[in-house]
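Protein entry
_____________
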Amino acid sequence: MRITLLTIDLWLEGCNSLKAKRRRTGKIRDKFARRSNLAVHESGFLDIHDRSQWSILVIAQSQNLVDQSIAIIEAELCTELDAVIVDIKRERLY
């Protein structure tokens, strides 16, 4: 069993309310939370309108499968998200 924590920092240009922030970042939770090998939650910048941090825990039988899942997540975030990705961190937990 392999576990990796993916942390994504976002900048939401022009976002001036928490409601607008939730509307723009809710796609992350909706899209990735349905997958059986992922756990997704907003983990930082909770009260800042134009910033957001999301943590995605990826669990799989092999590191190769974890890395494949992370590559898919990163590609989908780059193409489908209405935000600028400021930073992405990977932390292997097990």
Remarks:
- The chain has one domain: 2-92.
- The mean pLDDT is 93.
- Residues 2-92 form a domain with the Alpha-Beta Plaits fold (CATH 3.30.70.1120).
- The first strand starts at residue 2 and ends at 11.
